[in-house]
Design a protein that fits this description.
With 155 residues, the chain is α+β, with helices and mostly antiparallel strands. 26% of the residues lie in helices and 44% in strands. The chain has a six-stranded antiparallel β-sheet with strand order 3-4-5-9-8-7. A four-stranded mixed β-sheet has the order 6-1-2-10.
Length: 155
C-alpha cells in the first residue's frame, strides 16, 4: 500500500514538473488578434514576449497594417497583415499579391543577423507575417517561441 502511494505521488510530481517547465506562457503575454476573412471571423492567438514598453500601429499606402511591440532593449515583435478595409475589425486579404505586398513592407520570410549582431526573423502564418527585429541572441529563443505559439481560431 505504501509503495502505491509513493508511486502515485511520484507520478503526480512528474506531471506537475513537466507541466510547469513546458509552459509557453511563463515569459509571455497572450494576445488575441480578431479579424474577418470574407464572411468568417477568426482570431490569431499568440503568446508575445512579455515586458513590451510601447505599441505602435502603422498602415502603409498599400494597406499593409503592422502592429509593433517595442521593448526596452530596442527589440521589436510585430504582426503584419494586408487590411483591405478601414473598419475597426481588420478584414484580411489572402492572395499571393497581398503576401507579396506584406513581404515588400516588412521583409522577406527567413531569419538572420543585423550588422550589430542582433537577430531578426519573419514567418508567414496564415495571412499574417509574424516576426521580430533587433533581438539579442540570448533572448531569441523567447521570441521564436512566441512565433511558434501562434494559432488561428474561429472567432
Amino acid at each position: 500500500m505504501i509503495q502505491k502511494i509513493q508511486l502515485r505521488n511520484l507520478l503526480l510530481l512528474a506531471v506537475v514538473v513537466a507541466t510547469s517547465s513546458c509552459s509557453v506562457m511563463r515569459d509571455t503575454d497572450k494576445l488575441e488578434y480578431a479579424y474577418a476573412e470574407g464572411v468568417n471571423y477568426r482570431k490569431l492567438v499568440i503568446a508575445i514576449p512579455n515586458g513590451f514598453q510601447s505599441e505602435s500601429h502603422h498602415r502603409d499606402e498599400n494597406g499593409v497594417l503592422t502592429r509593433i511591440f517595442h521593448y526596452r532593449d530596442g527589440s521589436e515583435f510585430f504582426i503584419a497583415c494586408k487590411d483591405k478595409e478601414l473598419n475597426p475589425i481588420i478584414a484580411v486579404e489572402r492572395t499571393a499579391t497581398s503576401v507579396n505586398e506584406l513581404k515588400k513592407s516588412v521583409g522577406e520570410e527567413g531569419s538572420g543577423k543585423h550588422s550589430d549582431g542582433t537577430n531578426w526573423r519573419r514567418t508567414v502564418r496564415d495571412c499574417f507575417i509574424i516576426g521580430y527585429d533587433f533581438v539579442e541572441p540570448a533572448r531569441a529563443k523567447i521570441f521564436d517561441e512566441a512565433i511558434h505559439s501562434s494559432k488561428v481560431r474561429r472567432g
